[in-house]
Design a protein that fits this description.
Blueprint lengths: L1 H15 L7 H6 L3 E3 L5 E3 L5 H25 L3 H15 L5 E4 L2 E4 L1
Parallel strand pairs: 1-3
Antiparallel strand pairs: 1-2, 3-4
Helix pairs in contact: 3-4
């Protein structure tokens, strides 16, 4: 029984860790990340490993989607990124951070 409990505890510790990772809404609410005119997220202040991983993951997915849209519409990736950035900033909730003119502002 003790061995079973030790194994169960070990499994919970090993596999339970990802549930502690931060999600986008929490990161935005806490002012850790913000939207930029480039269409991608950036850290508002020095990022933890979890926040950095979140930003990298979301930005990679966004870039893939932007490339698909650019190809489908026969336009440049940069044009899609700029339009997406503009829309993301417009849709950002009050209190969230947006980058305007190279500096962070709270919406």
């Amino acid at each position: 029984m003790k061995i079973f409990l030790a194994m169960l505890t070990t499994c919970l510790l090993l596999f339970g860790q990802p549930s502690f990772a931060i999600d986008l809404q929490t990161a935005k609410t806490q002012g850790l990340v913000g939207e930029t005119p480039s269409g991608y997220l950036e850290a508002v202040k020095p990022a933890s490993a979890d926040t950095k991983a979140l930003i990298d993951s979301i930005n990679a997915k966004r870039k893939q989607k932007y490339e698909e849209i650019a190809t489908r519409n026969k336009t440049s990736l940069q044009a899609v990124e700029q339009l997406a950035g503009k829309k993301a900033i417009e849709k950002s909730a009050p209190g969230s951070y947006i980058k305007l003119g190279g500096s962070w502002k709270q919406k």
